[in-house]
Amino acid sequence: MFKITKTMLTEEEIKARVAELGKQIEKDFEGQDLLVVGILKGASVFVADLIRNINLDVNMDFMSVSSYGNAMESSGSVKILKDLDVDIKGKNVLIVEDIIDSGLTLSNLTKELSARGPKSLKICTLLDKPERRKADIPVDYVGFVIEDKFIVGYGIDYAEKYRNLPYIGIVEDV
Ligand SMILES: O=P(O)(O)OC[C@H]1O[C@H](OP(=O)(O)OP(=O)(O)O)[C@H](O)[C@@H]1O
Ligand code: HPA
Predict the structure, then answer these.
(1) CA-CA distances (angstroms) from residue 123 to 8, 49, 149?
(2) Domains within the chain, CATH numbers bracketed
(3) C-beta of residue 96 within 8 angstroms of C-beta of residue 43
(4) Which entry of 101, 136, 157, 173 is annotated as an active-site residue?
């Protein structure tokens, strides 16, 4: 049976780190435009907290993508389930993710978005699991580097459950 066995990051730890990331982004984009793009659904909670820590005139948009899951197609592309509402040509774009695991979702997504001619394209992720990386992608802002455990909470699901937990927990088969 799958159960949440431990807390990896508490609500307080997440809150403090999200505030730091927001301030760093605020400093880096001072005096510039910024379009924050949250990747649904996992990043929804993080992006909502993050933008409230960026005291700039930010615009916000969302994308929903699905990666082709099986190994044979792993180098493929992302299927766009919901595209951006705005044209990103000439804009500073910050992609916000909850977790980078294999890196395939973002590696394919950044190829797609780069082709649209943004002024800059940066990546912010709350969690980074480098041990599982299959595609090398440069990440500009990382909340926490974590070990290879299956985690849930703060927007991240297991079978669509646990997204509403305010902390990040480890799920194990017990
Ligand atoms: O680096 P990768 O191995 O590609 O994995 C990371 C992706 O997986 C999760 O999304 P998921 O497809 O589970 O959708 P969700 O955000 O709607 O839960 C997560 O939100 C990332 O988008
Ligand atoms: O650890 C994880 N938990 C939930 N969804 C995920 N998608 C990639 N890694 C994870």
Answers:
(1) 23, 16, 22
(2) 2-173 (3.40.50.2020)
(3) yes
(4) 101
- The ipTM assigned to this model is 0.96
pTM of the model: 0.95
Annotation marks residue 101 as catalytic: yes
Q: Is 35 in the pocket of ligand 2 (CB under 6 A)?
A: no
| Alpha carbons 149 and 151: distance in angstroms, whole number | 6
Give the residue from 50, 58, 56, 121 showing the smallest Cα distance to 92: 121
Atom of ligand 2 nearest to the CA of 150: 1
Stated as kind and residue range, the H or E segment containing 151 is strand 151-152
- Name the residue of 46, 64, 79, 101 to mutate for ligand 1: max ligand atoms within 8 A of Cβ: 101
Best probe residue, ligand 2, of 9, 125, 156 (max atoms within 8 Å of C-beta):
156
pLDDT in tens, 36-64: 999 999 999 999 999 999 999 999 999 99
Strand partners of residue 84: none
